[in-house]
Specification:
Elements (H helix, E strand, L loop, with lengths): L2 H12 L5 E7 L9 H12 L3 E8 L3 H12 L6 E5 L10 H8 L2 E2 L1 H15 L9 E5 L2 E6 L3 H24 L2
Parallel strand pairs: 1-2, 1-3, 3-6
Antiparallel strand pairs: 4-5, 5-6
Helix pairs in contact: 1-6, 2-6, 3-4, 5-6
């Protein structure tokens, strides 16, 4: 193991094992009972030992998305907000337009890696995703597509392996 790998391993070992999360679904076509992606996110978080302190479904309206995001960010127990839906290029997909300007430190690698991994599954259609992540203050926000398969890919391959590490890094002064 080289030095850089050793640093990453050490950071992961120092990271919190339990992260406080809020799940936000942005969709015109789903409610809490039909939101399989949001339910899947919650299940994966709980299986990994994390806490889900809030969950909300809002329609793809910028004002409602921003209000729900502000609600989540205002909760002291929330360290990470996981958003699903509204990341496509449809006329009503508004998540990226709301979230993008609010991010203080974008994490472009998340979207880049998500599209790379997604390309292996759905080929060129992966370019239609505007998945993104970044931080607002000491909290991280991940915005994923609305399909359960996309959420599963993002959660298992990218988010869950680094969730505690992300929180650790954002808490450093």
């Amino acid at each position: 193991m080289d030095f850089e790998e050793a640093v990453v391993v050490a950071h992961r070992q120092q990271a919190p094992g339990v992260v406080g999360c809020f799940v936000l679904c942005c969709s015109d076509s789903r409610n809490a009972q039909e939101d399989l992606s949001g339910q899947h996110i919650q299940q994966l978080l709980k299986e990994a030992g994390h806490k889900v302190y809030g969950y909300k479904v809002v329609v793809d309206e910028p004002v409602l998305i921003q209000e729900a995001l502000e609600l989540a960010l205002g909760m002291p127990s929330i360290e990470v907000v996981l958003m699903t839906g509204g990341t496509g290029i449809g006329q009503r997909d508004a998540t990226v337009q709301v979230l993008g300007p609010l991010l203080e430190k974008p994490l472009p690698g998340f979207g880049e890696l998500f599209r790379m991994l997604s390309y292996k599954q759905i080929e060129s259609a992966a370019m239609l995703s505007r998945a993104m992540a970044g931080s607002i203050g000491s909290k991280c926000i991940f915005a994923m597509p609305g399909s359960k398969a996309a959420v599963d890919l993002a959660m298992r391959r990218l988010i869950l392996p680094e969730l505690g590490h992300v929180v650790r890094e954002l808490s450093k002064r």
